[in-house]
Batch of 2 targets.
Target 1
Amino acid sequence: MKNKTIEIKLQEWQYEELCESDRTLVDLAKEATFSSYAPYSKFSVGAALRLENGDVVKGCNNENAAYPVTLCAERTAIFSAQAQYPNVPIVELAVAARNVKGEFVVKPVSPCGSCRQVIAEQEYRYKRNIRVMMVGEEGILVAESVKDLLPLGFEEGDMK
Ligand code: THU
């Protein structure tokens, strides 16, 4: 038996430390929470992604009375971007959330497992990393690749 250790890397930033384009993406993710349709969880999530061509696409969670039909903010943004801009890679994505009291969350919100898998497919498809910014009032966690959020993720190559 051998033990194996996988290292992941994250950065923690304060909003004021971010460059202008990162601050804009964070602001747009926060703005997108106000488009959320979350009558069941009352947890309003917003995402904003930047494409390689510089355009930004927003997404928000859309819930459903049939609960599992709900789609997260990140996947809403990603699928919307790929529908509007076919074959344009995503370079970075920010996710923000407001809690049941309507306040922005203090701890950074991080993408669920399904969203991580979808972000991983985008990295695989375009052979480039996607920077993921997870927004909290106490700080913004940044992963340079979704591989830092989904180590040992399943991808096309695993089917060979
Ligand atoms: N949600 C997202 O939109 N993104 C995530 O990464 C985590 C969860 C949504 C789904 C559901 O509408 C609500 O948050 C509570 O789980």
Target 2
Amino acid sequence: MTEVVEAIFETVAATAPEVRAGLVGRREYQEKENPSGERKLAADIHADQLFEERLLAIEGVASYASEERETVTGDAYGDGYHVAVDPLDGSSNLKSNNAMGTIVGIYEEPLPAAGEHLVASGFVLYGPITNMVTAVEGTVTEYALDDGKRIAVAEDVALPDEPTVYGFGGRVPDWPEDFERFVRGIEQELKLRYGGAMIADVNQVLTYGGIFAYPALESNPDGKLRLQFEGNPIAYVVESAGGGSSDGNQSLLSVEATELHQRVPLHVGNTVLIDRLERALG
Ligand code: AHG
Ligand code: MN
Ligand code: MN
């Protein structure tokens, strides 16, 4: 079934230029909220419509789920892959003209599914260059997208051994004490890189080594980010690149999936830092 995985990545790559072009003039909020109770941008809706239409048209894709939709579309229990998409990650960065991304997780089980049922995942980063990173069978590849065509620019991507950057979401007063103590150590050693779009921040970690987290909060012990659309796909990429992931005490890929839009505390990066985090929260 790798040709279906390739077809999915090709389709996401081919759609990326339209998503990027479609950002212009779509930064106003719509009245309707998304299933996570967050306000939707016209750009979120536009990207979601493009991906749903294109991905469901692929032979071998059974269903489509997205952060912007209450329920799965297509054949929720059909044969084939079940695709989970965050059409526009970090969309609040549109107004400030900062980087955003698209995340895709390809599951072999109906959704919601645990990350161990991912067969591949990847993301597009709408940065100065539109690039794409994919993880398939333990191998991470980085592509530059030229008019929707993938040009491999780095094969077998692996996190650098030496961590350099960190980025943590949420407000400091809202961090649990044990997490804050962990951060106080990290900030003595690494450089702060936090831009408000997980994909852009995680790509810093993939490039320079380090750790990204959107942790459990006092106000919300499950944190902010969604397991199906953000946590699992990104954990799959980072773990395939030799890094680690954690919800605070186990790999994100082992977290039981009970609801399509469940949130999860998300920590990804160098294994030495993930181990240190789990000891700090233990
Ligand atoms: P999305 O735009 O898909 O809802 O994702 C936004 C997420 C994630 O990209 C980012 O790490 C986080 O929200 C930023 O949250 P804060 O604005 O609270 O920093
Ligand atoms: Mn997101
Ligand atoms: Mn989003």
